[in-house]
Amino acid sequence: MRLLLSHPEVEIGALTAGGNAGRRLGEFQPHLLPLADRVLEESTAEVLGGHDVVFLALPHGRSAELAAQLGDSTLVIDCGADHRLQDADAWDRWYGGEHAGHWPYGLPELPGARDALRGTTRVAVPGCFPTVSSLALAPALAAGLVGPDVVITAVTGTSGAGRSLKPHLLGAEVMGSLSAYGVGGVHRHTPEIAQNLSGVSGEPVSVSFTPVLAPLPRGILATCTAPLTGDGAQAREVYDKAYAAEPFVHLLPEGQWPTTKATLGSNTVHLQVAVDADAGRLVVVAAIDNLAKGTAGGAIQCMNIALGLPEVTGLPTTGVAP
Amino acid sequence: MRLLLSHPEVEIGALTAGGNAGRRLGEFQPHLLPLADRVLEESTAEVLGGHDVVFLALPHGRSAELAAQLGDSTLVIDCGADHRLQDADAWDRWYGGEHAGHWPYGLPELPGARDALRGTTRVAVPGCFPTVSSLALAPALAAGLVGPDVVITAVTGTSGAGRSLKPHLLGAEVMGSLSAYGVGGVHRHTPEIAQNLSGVSGEPVSVSFTPVLAPLPRGILATCTAPLTGDGAQAREVYDKAYAAEPFVHLLPEGQWPTTKATLGSNTVHLQVAVDADAGRLVVVAAIDNLAKGTAGGAIQCMNIALGLPEVTGLPTTGVAP
Amino acid sequence: MRLLLSHPEVEIGALTAGGNAGRRLGEFQPHLLPLADRVLEESTAEVLGGHDVVFLALPHGRSAELAAQLGDSTLVIDCGADHRLQDADAWDRWYGGEHAGHWPYGLPELPGARDALRGTTRVAVPGCFPTVSSLALAPALAAGLVGPDVVITAVTGTSGAGRSLKPHLLGAEVMGSLSAYGVGGVHRHTPEIAQNLSGVSGEPVSVSFTPVLAPLPRGILATCTAPLTGDGAQAREVYDKAYAAEPFVHLLPEGQWPTTKATLGSNTVHLQVAVDADAGRLVVVAAIDNLAKGTAGGAIQCMNIALGLPEVTGLPTTGVAP
Amino acid sequence: MRLLLSHPEVEIGALTAGGNAGRRLGEFQPHLLPLADRVLEESTAEVLGGHDVVFLALPHGRSAELAAQLGDSTLVIDCGADHRLQDADAWDRWYGGEHAGHWPYGLPELPGARDALRGTTRVAVPGCFPTVSSLALAPALAAGLVGPDVVITAVTGTSGAGRSLKPHLLGAEVMGSLSAYGVGGVHRHTPEIAQNLSGVSGEPVSVSFTPVLAPLPRGILATCTAPLTGDGAQAREVYDKAYAAEPFVHLLPEGQWPTTKATLGSNTVHLQVAVDADAGRLVVVAAIDNLAKGTAGGAIQCMNIALGLPEVTGLPTTGVAP
Fold it and tell me: Where would I find the Semialdehyde dehydrogenase NAD-binding domain in this sequence (chains A, B, C, D) (predicted)?
């Protein structure tokens, strides 16, 4: 909503909620001053119908039915997981239940993705970890620089966990501490990363993914490594070529490493590559704001593409730092 | 000094410094209230001579000469890097200049290390990253569970960088941000980790090591993975056996993952293991307080062993949380 | 419990809980490694009976009945609010319901308080804000240096709010933000501060008290001001005299200002005084760890006095920093 | 620069620096992606001449000469202290040396200030603490609600101290700690606050001001109290009336208290008032982003007024949260 408020082609319609329907937005989000007195409505087709674009962020398993009720004249952008995975068995294994089918995948910087988004009325926006991890490793895999066996450790701020009231997310627990979770390949973003990287690589890519919780509100820094199989000396050129024309993916000058703060509030990915000759591995470090390019900003980028607007409309490339 | 103050067999003698010699300790370390009015002296053999034990934390290349002046009747515990590496070429490559030789290595939990520490008058205390990384991976390598090709991403609080006045360590830069540094195998702790793990494994171990800076004062959480070559179902038993008798290394109950805060101020390592069957990797996550077991606590543990005191004397196993 | 574990005269008996009875302590408090496998019991007189000392930290209105069941042979130390206020009307106004009566007040550094604690079997431990605020202002009021009209702004870490699951205490909300709460004299610690300061002053003291929530886990820094009515030049001497013999209250050297971190984990109060001649006010800044001297450490200090042990037994004066 | 980049009427000209002249902006400010490759120039009249607007942020004592060289056709907006104080003696006491004279004061929301800014070619932008403190107390003083004797405790993030390399500003020192500084009325923002409030009140206002450093990058929360002399029941109406038409000053709904995060990155002030009948004081709590409305945003607001643009042009009222 913060980003949509400054989007020149958007007028904000109904704001809806789950348990908080009926309450003022300003109670929860006082930073959205221009919308503070808006009252949250129920997330129903009655309320949402009639809008040109609807963004959904629902518990999984709920968006397909609502999208069907909204019909094909509405651009439905699903920030949830329901339509990200292509494989029904993978859906069943990782989420359980019937697969709702897959929609055009909202990571325009992946090969072929942008074409599928043009003119679509359905978008499945990726998760925050798949966004940063896939963009970090896709060029190397596409170029055959590395083998299909990647290791990712992604450190994240706590907003990634949403606003659920769990003891380990309390400020007093989080501040001054680091912890791992979803270790051993059990985080639900793992199959999504594997799907993206396998698609780029053309062969199955094995993904070891570990998320780490750190004491900051927002931001993800992913350290991504893979065994070098090609010429490490070409790594920089490969990444430069892959992203030179991308407005939101920024390869930093040699010697400068990404910080999440430089991306705070913006729709950018900052990344850097290195070759570890001793270990025979490529290391890519990438930073995003999980609440911007992570999902919400990426969703607006997809909206722009789907509607035929300039892709960068309303999306900042400038972070809020320090 | 905090830990030594509550060590029942220690009387604190001279306190020395570099550029701050001549000033009150309380100016810099007001938390050390019982020592606040002590005046810092010069780090010379004249001042340090006559003590039973001397702890050094000097810029590299400086401890050998001072230790020689102190003679063999003094137990010299070097918290710096000078005597950690066994190989003179490795020293020259990573630090430059002439190798001062290696001393008994102060990580008692490594196979054979404790014996070498008993009765010694010289100890090379390991760095913080090598401590946590080596203890995380040694049992799996020793048991042949994993192959000699490990990937480590270690997230650290900013005290690991000391009190040097660099812009990127300012509070306003650090808070709310994550950054990587020393990427691509260029951090000086890399050869020390490789030395430890190769020693345990019996064959050269390749180490991909990436440190990440996170916004907390102290604490390291290391995510360590290696390709499974043995029976993953035995992983827990291997670690349980390796550390059951160790007073400071704690394998958490199944399902519970380490947090750095649980180790804050204590000499403990908390760790947990998982097998990622899809990726074919073992994942070990380990947490320490870099300013306790990381170096300073480990140094006291080594002192206890060298002097023939009970190893746990004066060393807390209880963290300060939240 | 962390402090009691290193208290040489204490053996820890039953550990009890409310909703978490029946679960392992290590699930919630993994930093208390030596107690991690203890199972929490119900907070009943059956479980608690037979101990020499019982510490209570119950919702208000609940400790009187339990204490009565335990009888006079048990030293009951109430960390809750029930027996702090002397005035039944004040109790009714601020907490509601019938007053349980007042017990000897556990702030030994207040004039007369220590005598009332010797040999007692009942102690009402003060709240964290009253501890730091009362010790900051009592000497000036007792000496007639300032008028009975004080303004206190106390900044606190979030552990002061306990482990209740409220949205505004989530890490993502707390980190990077400051907020005030209980503004306008409505915080329940206000009458307790007024009671303490009025007792010292001999006349009613009016208290303007505002707590501010800041992004750190623990620590309180109170800025306390009052109009100068005496000779400001004597301020330092007044405080020096008041606290010179106190083991836990430390007036910093001139020019050095308190930091909460210097008190972290310790039972100390660090304070400093200044005279603002332009504004005609005395300003006292005082720091504590709210989870140590704030309540838990103070409770053990009172136990020592009540049992006739040396007052400082088992209580650190050394903080954990940085 | 972040704000100017999205200002529709601004084209960014020369960027200058002190010691860092000659280096890429992106080395220091990687979040300003569109300007990352700009090279910093020297802060001389040659470089700065020919621009319509020049923003200065120089060490004190340096802006008058440069402004004179730039001439009257350039709008010079001084973010430093040189031209804030009206009284030469006050300047000499607080800063030392000769007074450069005072310029129209850049806090448009103060009575009369906006008129003085229209069409001016010189603006003295206020400091961050004077901005938030003056706006918090001005309405009550102007309305005669409170007496001229105010107490302010302002908690601030560490960016307020700039990027100077001082040990107490290092991340490891700042995180997990609170500290006071400039206690006893010695902070240089004190006379500026007194000047503003005395101007509003019509009589000398005595100011007790204490800044507190907290572990967050940016944000100020000021708790401002004064003795009630008027009818407290009118407090809300007084503030409502004062700020109803102000685009950047927002009185929160009753029962909701300001958080700095709601203002992060925006040019807004959020405030709330309460009457403490027991203490006989009005309490106003106000939050700003010290790097937005605190100085930089306020500077742009003044530029808009001086140039005759709509005052709100290019200035967000939406914060970046959480």
Answer: 1-118
